[in-house]
Amino acid sequence: MERHLILRVATRLLVAPILLYGLYVQFHGEFGPGGGFQAGVIFAVAFILYGVVFSLQKLRSIMPDSFVHKLVALGVLVYGGTGIASLLLGGNYLDYNVLAQVGYEGQHWGIIIVELGVGITVFSVMVAIYYAFAARPPSLRDEDW
Amino acid sequence: MELAVTLFLFFSIVATAVAIAMIRSLFAVVMLAGVVSLLSALLFIVMDAVDVAFTEAAVGAGISTVLMLGTIALTARTQKSVSAPSLVPLSVVTLTGLVLMYGTLDMPNFGAPNAPVQTQVGAAYIERTPDDIHVPNIVTAVLASYRGYDTLGEVTVVFAAGIGVVLLLGGIGTRRRRQRDPEGET
User: Which of A64, A136, B39, B121 has its CA 20 to 30 A from that of A73?
Assistant: First the structure.
């Protein structure tokens, strides 16, 4: 991809807005369309785009495999941990009402934290799957496609 | 107007599917599969299911395309040519399509007010969400709060799928081997 100047410049311009949009979708999910799943995918797309256009080695030096694999588990832990937290505070499993003084505020906290867990797991699973696929083949020349 | 848009999108999807069946170059097939995803995302928007459209566009057109490209980079770039076109696949596809269409005859019309989805639990969610949860997007309220267990299950499925792919395609194993033998090629 060294010779594709337009792709490289466009990617440099696009990555930051895609990341910002991912964060918007993540934390605006209760008010508009979106949520953790979509945000995780969008966030991962920015990294995958960078990896496709620049090189996988560059992306891996920013996001090492071990870090991505830990994030995969962290998201599920955040989700499950929210349930444990509500158990410890005296409610049922995943009953967010006990997370704050007022019931609906607890619901807001619960939804935001849980969606964050979803987002982290989806993001890291997408990046991990991309690593697993892209790390195997020898890189193809443009003519081979 | 809405009918015209829906018909246009459906015909475009069918045309793209026919093109996919005809083309031998797998690179073009993957790109056209992304086009099908984008068109179905537009269909979901016409049906007011923006959350689903969002997911379809991001996963179907974005991630799957990249993964399919990774797969054809690992395997082959062109489909093997078949000597004589067989009638069996076409008849299987046609038959399945007819059975599915027959199945939809029992379903209520799209947006029908007396459909079970409108009269039973859906109405309760719409009624209770403003008091219980105070969020404008009821889809989020249902996914993350009312149906929190289901979403936990979905996240676990994504987790398991990711771990499975990483284990099968050797992310972790390769790293271990590299650590044990830093000079050697893995």
Answer: A136
pLDDT of residue B186: 42
Q: Do B132 and A107 touch (CB under 8 A)?
A: yes
Rounded average pLDDT over B88-111: 90
Contact B171 A135 (CB under 8 A): yes
Predicted pLDDT at B178 = 58
Nearest alpha carbon to residue B32 among B61, B52, B74: B61
Q: What are phi and psi of B25, to 5 degrees?
A: -70, 120
Report d(CA B170, CA A136) in Å as an integer: 9
| C-alpha–C-alpha distance, residues A92 and B56, integer Å | 33
Strand partners, B78: B25
Q: Which of A19, A56, A77, A79 should be substituted to probe chain B, the one whose Cβ sees the most B Cβ atoms within 10 Å? A: A79
Dihedral (C-alpha) B62, B67, B71, B76: value to the nearest 10 degrees? 10
What value, to the nearest 5°, has the Cα angle with vertex B152 and ends B172 and B38? 80
The interface pTM score, or ipTM, of the predicted complex is 0.87
List CB contacts of B140: < 8 A, sequence separation 6 or more.
A29, A30, A35, A111, A115
Closest Cα to residue B137, out of A84, A31, A130, A89?
A: A31
